[in-house]
UniProtKB/TrEMBL annotation:
Source organism per UniProt: Roseofilum reptotaenium AO1-A
Keyword line: Cytoplasm
UniProt-listed Pfam families: RecX_HTH1
Compartmental location: Cytoplasm
Biological processes per GO annotation: regulation of DNA repair
Gene Ontology CC: cytoplasm
Domain RecX first three-helical as annotated: residue spans: 10-42
Domain of life where this protein originates: Bacteria
Family under the similarity heading: Belongs to the RecX family.
Source organism phylogeny: Bacteria, Bacillati, Cyanobacteriota, Cyanophyceae, Desertifilales
Name of the featured protein: Regulatory protein RecX
Broad class of the protein's primary localization: cytoplasm
Amino acid sequence: MTCQTYFNLLLSRRDYSVKELEKKAQEKGFSLEEIAETIAHLQSLGYQSDRRLASTLIESGKGKYGKAALRRKCLSKGISSETFEQAWQEQPEPPDNLAETQDLQAKVERKYKITDWANLDPQTQTKVYRYLQYRGFNPTEVLAYWREEID
């Protein structure tokens, strides 16, 4: 199996970053020169694009995760910060950046059985902060937005 065939097989299933392709090809025993040439060829044909992969990851994670968590996911796949920022800027921006958190708010309310955002007990508030922070959202801004929305 040639490097070209192997990459075509991989890319037929899903997008991979350059770093992921390099790692997989090295594990298969292909030479670094052959890997670099094949990746350049695939990019010239439009079969591989780190920016497209970053855009896909952002689209699939928007509303579930914040910018920081999505950046971490892209970095873990070997996508540079510059490529992530370009893909982030290309995404259509909702009128209000926090408006996309309505689904998230419903999930949090169900998970922690919250009925009144104005009177959260400290223990629940801490859990909600951690939940939001883990997903890359700024908990202070999101909670303030949700409290204002109710008032």
